[in-house]
Design a protein that fits this description.
alpha/beta; 6-stranded parallel β-sheet; 6 helices
């Protein structure tokens, strides 16, 4: 498995699992790159798939192969030999299963947020990466912003007293 791209090599060939609005954002950004080829898209929602294909056409790319036959049709996409990596932007509850399946299929994974619903999910995704030797990048960046890290450092230094309740921004 080619796990790392080197400048000057052939294009990175991508598949997308989940091309709803967040997935379309990733799709639009990657369609701007001349070192990326977008091979296939999976989404059971026909309207989202149509919008995603329009994103490609607007970027002067050809339409990608579409996998729209239900939520598990991503497994057919993963069988393709012409895909190096996948971007997963499906609903969170599917991320761990899809990420593990992708690594087991030899695909490098970029996952929109971790998607873990519990601690066991975290261990499952780590163990799958260790077992397969395939890297997975959790593409959540808000936790690394300077202001967020500053608050986390204050919490760790007990500057707010005893933390009794916390609430996330994705509610």
């Amino acid at each position: 498995v080619k796990a790392f791209y080197q400048a000057g090599e052939s294009k990175v060939r991508l598949g997308f699992i989940g091309v709803g609005l967040r997935g379309q954002t990733h799709l639009a950004e990657l369609a701007l790159r001349d070192d990326v080829e977008i091979i296939a898209l999976h989404d059971p929602d026909a309207a989202m798939m149509a919008l995603a294909q329009e994103v490609l056409l607007k970027a002067k790319r050809k339409k990608a192969s579409a996998y729209t036959n239900g939520i598990d049709d991503y497994r057919e996409l993963l069988k393709r030999e012409d895909i190096d990596a996948v971007i997963i932007s499906s609903p969170w509850e599917y991320h761990i299963e899809q990420g593990i399946a992708a690594m087991e299929a030899g695909k490098i994974v970029g996952m929109e947020v971790c998607g873990a619903m519990n601690v066991q999910d975290c261990w499952d995704i780590v163990k799958a990466s260790e077992r397969t030797g395939i890297p997975l990048m959790v593409m959540e960046n808000v936790c690394y912003r300077r202001d967020v890290r500053a608050v986390m450092n204050m919490v760790n230094a007990c500057k707010f007293g005893e933390l009794i309740h916390a609430q996330g921004g994705y509610q």
